[in-house]
Amino acid sequence: MPPSDLAARLKVLAESAVQPLAPARGIVSELPEFLPGERFSARIEAALGDGSFKALVANRNVTLSLAHPAQAGELLELVVIERTPRAIVARRADATLSSPPDATLSHAARIIGELAAGEFRPVPLARGEPMLPAAPALAAAAAPLLRRAISESGLFYESHQAEWLSGTRPTESLLAEPQGARLPAAAAPQPPEGAAGARIPEELAPLVRSQLEALATHRLVWQGALWPGQSVQWEIEEQPDERMAEGGPEAASRRWVTTLRLVLPHLGEIRARLALAGARIELGIEAATPDARALLRASQPALGRALAADGLALGAVSVTP
């Protein structure tokens, strides 16, 4: 079982050894539609003085924010993690750890290097099982099940373990998560003893890799079935809100963005992106068919009233192909 302070250690090691690439900023709309896992090259042209760099990608000028130093003229080989409407999230193609001849990496650092070099896969919701036996009459019925599926996904196991040690989380809750499920049914988690860095079980490697990705990108990704035949991919991301950052407190300069990708029986393929900053919501929906877009636009007033009843204000709304 991973130790209770693994999350903090992963963060330190990820920042010092893995060297992820931060999300790109200022990507122009003509940029090719890179797919996750696809490689691309970026040539650094100049440092801009704020930790970002002017670069050339696919013969187009972009601004990159990097988590490591770079020199003008340097050619970087990158791998796409995700393509969003305004940015590319990527990492170095050569993400395996390397060290100077006289340097020695710890066992834990080598494990993290192996994980970072592996293939990223979203964490399965509800262990890959449908969360509902059938489509609910009211969408609100799925909310507590989604909340439980996220809590028990294993992404937050170390923080839950700390709560268990402090007496604020029951043992049964830990045993419901993938890490706790590896323990014998009658055994309770034990406080960590001795040195950390034991090899991570193979079945838990994708989960720990997702934890590393979350530390590097501030983005969590799940996929699974809401009910039989209805799959969904769900992302939650913390982003800076530049409009709110000016003159405001640090807490007000962050916003949460959640994205759902699913195929619905009547609307077809849908990608919904919802940004929450304070009590204001911005919604962007991509629908595949004209009929679906027309129906979604006609439903905007009803959506605004429903959100207002919960104390939320619907701001900008876009429905696009």
List the helices and strands and how they pair.
Blueprint: H1 6-18, E1 39-47, E2 52-57, E3 60-65, E4 75-83, E5 88-92, H2 107-117, E6 123-124, H3 143-151, H4 157-165, H5 171-175, H6 178-181, H7 205-217, E7 219-227, E8 230-240, H8 242-245, E9 254-264, E10 268-277, E11 280-287, H9 290-298, H10 300-309, E12 313-320
Parallel strand pairs: 6-7, 11-12
Antiparallel strand pairs: 1-2, 1-4, 2-3, 4-5, 7-8, 8-9, 9-10, 10-11
Describe this structure in words.
With 321 residues, this protein is an alpha+beta fold. The chain has a domain at 6-117. It contains ten helices and twelve strands. The protein has a seven-stranded mixed β-sheet. A five-stranded antiparallel β-sheet has the order 3-2-1-4-5, with no helix packed on it. A hairpin with a 4-residue loop joins strand 4 (75-83) and strand 5 (88-92). The radius of gyration is 22 Å and the shape is globular. The relative contact order is 0.11. Mean pLDDT is 76; it is low at 12-29, 96-101 and 244-251.
